[in-house]
Amino acid sequence: MKIPNSGFLIENGRTYLPCTPDEEKRIVHDLINEAELHLREGNLYYVVSYRWFSRWEKYVGQASDVEQLAGSLDLDAVTPGIADRPGPIDNSDIVESETGCDGEDLDLIRTLVEGSDYVLLPQRAWEKLLQWYSGGPALPRKMISQGHSNRKQFNVEVYPLRLRLIDSRDGNEFILSLSKKASLHELKEKVCALRGIEQEKVSLWDYFSKQKHTQLIASHKTLEESHLQMDQEILLELQVDETSPRIGKDSTGNQLALVTIEPSRSSTSIAGGPSMSNGHSSSYSLNSGPGVTTNSYIDIGFAANNSVRREGSGLAGLQNLGNTCFMNSALQCLVHTPPLVEYFLQDYSDEINIENPLGMRGELAIAFGELLRKMWSSGRTTIAPRAFKGKVALFAPQFSGYNQHDSQELLAFLLDGLHEDLNRVKQKPYFEMKDWNGEPDDEVAEVCWRNHKARNDSVIVDVCQGQYKSTLVCPICGKISVTFDPFMYLTLPLPSTVTRSMNVTIFYADGSGLPMPYTVSVLKNGHCRDLIQALSAACCLRSDEVLLLAEVYEHKIYRLFENHFELLTSIKDEDHIVAYRFPEKGARKRKLEVIHRERLSMEFLKGSSGKYFGAPLITFLEEDQPSGTDIEAAVAKVLSPLKTASSSTVVHGGQDNGYFSEADGEPSASCNGQPEAKDQVMENVEHGEESTQELSLKLFLTDNGYGSCKPVFKDSVVKFGNRIRVFLDWSEKEQKLYDSSYLKDIPEVYHKSSFTAKKTRQEAVSLFSCLEAFLTEEPLGPDDMWYCPNCKEHRQATKKLDLWMLPEILVFHLKRFSYSRYLKNKLDTFVDFPIHNLDLNKYVKKGDGESYLYELYAISNHYGGLGGGHYTAFAKLIDDNRWYNFDDSRVSPVNESDVKTSAAYVLFYRRVKVAQKVGGLGEA
């Protein structure tokens, strides 16, 4: 029962009032935190629409990431109790259909992303929200554990495994929903209950791509370990008694003939999938427990790599298992890496390391080797890498499921995992880190590499790992730290050649000149440092001056760009950007921000706070604990360039400064009774009988959020705060004293009205410019400080990288994707990279006389944007010296001239041997 129009529940004559927003927030957060402390398999979580949940967050006083991304400054929107109370929970926007009555059977839209489309709430938190708001539908999901030993993770299975059961008796199809951690025994029980058949009479088959693979015998083996995929078909057959006629009944009870399909002749391979098409199979003994391997018996099955190659070897496509194009692209690049092909087509069983705690017990290396052999022995047959995907998901749960991922991130995991699985070092020795002081680089690099090889020795290290020199310099004491570190690939930034025009107004913080607008041209994807450098040149900034960059929003300082490495893409064309020109000494002192308010005489009488106008001014204070007089003097100084010609006839002071005294009806604290500042402490010091001597300028102290207001008097003393903020009230007389037009009409960064759209040439940069940007010296970011052993403090040191030694296989990762709290971006910049004759000799600092000349042989491509992109690969077959396009299961030849596109994401180069003539890879 409810009170009409109230929503308050009544039970047994008692009214249950809803919680306050603060109470709701506290209760839900406590329940979420409690659930985080007790993570275990089987815990129940509920999927909740982010659209509804963000409204609830706003109601209880939380700013969502979406609001922060938009730069919302609506303080009321994040004040508890101001936003409207959300209606009933509504999950309809994330549900595909509501045909099932049980939330576990409801289909969620497949492309949902946690944090932007839905949130996961533990059971008790969901029950509280449901009690307060009702609604639904409820979408319960269980927590499962994934991975092994130290890699084990707890994840909520948002998308249970959906299987399509085909009944061989009548061809009817049914949908089953089970956890990927459910056993084959549970699967058989569910099938038999659904079809009303005794378990003893049922045979289930892995019916992937309408082909019978292996029989799914009831056991404790999980569906995940059986390599069953989302939306995959399984076949139901009845076991026929040989003494009885081969007649059964369909789902309607009609008799029909049963045709038993012969099971696949393929046996289980070392990767857990079907054996290779040439009849060779691999055996790997298993001890107790599923998936646990030993080295007691390994028979790879190939004595020489030529025995597995057929016509069309290396041209096998990989079937897309559901958003697995990222994996297919990465795999095609690796399986066309010549040294890896040679290695995995031979007997590598002696090098499998099952004891390495950092490895995957050899299972990843075996699965990769098995897949590579299939691809090189199956001609042009398309292969479904189900077993390999299962192994990857087992040891790297972040790649489980069917969401799109990053091909480079998978490559990094595979290279590292293959190395650890094939590490020839069984017992890694310990080496203490040494602080090198002045030793020759050659000696230091040799010792570092020798120590690295003593712990890491595999085919991946042999062909894929290089070494670079890292130099850190402390900006305070000048301490130099040099280290030599191994690398598996190089992540190169993409320096932009596209520029943008930016309008910025520069103010003098010391009041020595008038504000002046400047228009400068900077790199579109540059940093704030680039903008400051361009402005410094435009305004002829002296060597003893600095610029402080800021954004003005609604006539207040919205943010200061103190991190000079913040991307300029965070500044929009419609923003208002200003810079304050400080003497170098003044920049290190306490800042004073002056916000302007316009009030007419009648507004003073009414106690109105007036309206804001113009751009705020920032100056500096010499005193550590400035008085009101000091603050007024600083404000007057920074205003001095704005004085009008008639200002000399107007005298400041007493009652003649255009303000009304208390006797005239103006309250001394004319800010509508707002509370005083919380982040700054201001006192009045007694001076005889008068303790609140008024200033000539009407100034009011405020806080960080500009919400409080307290008048400043001559004897007021501000004791705390690195940045003091004051309101300056402008009366009609101040408008005559100063020309406020210099503070108004601050231009936008870029005014679009005068912009005429036209087609521009595609932006292009060279691979060499990307490499040089990677090797450029730059200071570390504020979040990446270096601990200086001399200063015993974390310092923002400068860092310089140099290439010391390059590997046989050199991988370049082009940094097209950038992520921050407020911005996600992809660069489609065209990178002009050499296919032949990539000469890196001048970049390598090790003077060993080696030649560092490289040839391109594979590319991982990414097309599209962040949300719905697609990966493909280009790879060169060494045997026939031709390039091919690998687009999942489709493989087609491609001209060499067509492999250079703006989609290139990861580049694979092979080092050319000195004796080899440039132009081919056949003898490398």
From TrEMBL:
<dbReference type="GO" id="GO:0006508">
    <property type="term" value="P:proteolysis"/>
</dbReference>
<dbReference type="InterPro" id="IPR018200">
    <property type="entry name" value="USP_CS"/>
</dbReference>
<dbReference type="Pfam" id="PF06337">
    <property type="entry name" value="DUSP"/>
</dbReference>
<dbReference type="InterPro" id="IPR006615">
    <property type="entry name" value="Pept_C19_DUSP"/>
</dbReference>
<dbReference type="InterPro" id="IPR038765">
    <property type="entry name" value="Papain-like_cys_pep_sf"/>
</dbReference>
<keyword id="KW-0378">Hydrolase</keyword>
<keyword id="KW-0645">Protease</keyword>
<feature type="compositionally biased region" description="Low complexity">
    <location>
        <begin position="272"/>
        <end position="286"/>
    </location>
</feature>
<protein>
    <recommendedName>
        <fullName>Ubiquitin carboxyl-terminal hydrolase</fullName>
        <ecNumber>3.4.19.12</ecNumber>
    </recommendedName>
</protein>
<keyword id="KW-0833">Ubl conjugation pathway</keyword>
<comment type="similarity">
    <text>Belongs to the peptidase C19 family.</text>
</comment>
<dbReference type="Pfam" id="PF00443">
    <property type="entry name" value="UCH"/>
</dbReference>
<dbReference type="InterPro" id="IPR035927">
    <property type="entry name" value="DUSP-like_sf"/>
</dbReference>
<dbReference type="InterPro" id="IPR028889">
    <property type="entry name" value="USP"/>
</dbReference>
<dbReference type="GO" id="GO:0004843">
    <property type="term" value="F:cysteine-type deubiquitinase activity"/>
</dbReference>
<keyword id="KW-0788">Thiol protease</keyword>
<dbReference type="InterPro" id="IPR050185">
    <property type="entry name" value="Ub_carboxyl-term_hydrolase"/>
</dbReference>
<feature type="domain" description="DUSP">
    <location>
        <begin position="19"/>
        <end position="144"/>
    </location>
</feature>
<comment type="function">
    <text>Recognizes and hydrolyzes the peptide bond at the C-terminal Gly of ubiquitin. Involved in the processing of poly-ubiquitin precursors as well as that of ubiquitinated proteins.</text>
</comment>
<feature type="region of interest" description="Disordered">
    <location>
        <begin position="265"/>
        <end position="286"/>
    </location>
</feature>
<feature type="domain" description="USP">
    <location>
        <begin position="316"/>
        <end position="912"/>
    </location>
</feature>
<dbReference type="InterPro" id="IPR001394">
    <property type="entry name" value="Peptidase_C19_UCH"/>
</dbReference>
<dbReference type="GO" id="GO:0016579">
    <property type="term" value="P:protein deubiquitination"/>
</dbReference>
